[in-house]
Amino acid sequence: MKVFINKVIPEIGFKLLDEAGIAYTVWKEKPILDRGQAIQFCKGHDAFLSVGQAGLDADFFRECKHLKVVALHSVGFDGIDIKAATENGVPVGNTPNVLNKATAETALLLMLTVARKALYLHNKIKQGEWGASQQPTQDLGIDLAGKTLGIVGLGRIGTELAKIVTQSWGMKILYHNRTTNAEAEKELGAKKVSMDELLAGSDVVSVHTALTSETKGMFGMEQFKKMKPSAIFINTARGGVHKEDELIEALQQQIIWGAGLDVTNPEPMSKDNPLLEMENAVVFPHIGSATKETRDKMSTCAVENIIAGLKGDPLPYPVNPEVRQGK
Ligand code: DGY
What we know:
Layout: E1 2-5, H1 11-19, E2 23-26, H2 35-43, E3 47-50, H3 58-63, E4 69-72, H4 82-87, E5 92-93, H5 100-115, H6 118-126, E6 148-152, H7 156-169, E7 172-176, H8 182-188, E8 191-192, H9 195-201, E9 204-207, H10 221-226, E10 232-235, H11 244-252, E11 258-261, E12 281-283, H12 292-311
Parallel strand pairs: 1-2, 1-3, 3-4, 4-5, 6-7, 6-9, 7-8, 9-10, 10-11, 11-12
The structure holds (2R)-2,3-dihydroxypropanoic acid.
């Protein structure tokens, strides 16, 4: 039984594979593999541990229906043709829950960095300008304490964020979900509202939805215009949820006050993107899960999926549990 791994994962993952007596091939080179190469490697292996979702389309699953498992090194699977995986009998697993706190912290970091213009002022120092303390009215940020955070998609990550900001800063929570989050309502005083109410009533709007046909392009000029001119837009979910050109326009026209993105559309973002030069915009290169502890946990989940899949057992973290195993 052999696994193909398309990038170098944290050491703990290799250790678990060694302990389970599972052989592996790791692609350590740059550039990353294209789809054709990945298919060729997978053809010579029984399982695939994929860092990233690129190329896992219907053709891939048709060509690689022999795979006993595809284990993603991510919680998201929006880029994968799960229907095709299921039709071809390939179980797919992901890494849920282990990155909730790290991603919530990333949203928090963006909120603070944007609200205090921190990156912009840091860059000013590098240009020889000390900035904010020179004049009492110069380069001012905005307080977050006591303000209202609107969470679009109050699931596990959104709830972690809501816990931090309610407990530390007394922020109030509005949320927009298909389902009611009774626990967040009871424990955190979160209030479920319509999208329009959330946009109009929030000082910060933070997106935590999966990318689906429903959420694709959900944030554009129409939504930014419904937000307060003093509001901050945060996206740590998927770049496809916002329309980047319209976000740039909304910031340039001061329709909203600021934006913080950990996900962009496309990724990677071009180095010429105007957002990178804006006073009230902060962009991170998709670092939501990028802590040592979290990546170790993701690696562990992914390998646990591989071990179960190779044995023909149900995956501990399945995306398509309906697939019948035991090839
Ligand atoms: C995920 O796991 O889906 C995150 O976006 C981290 O890459």
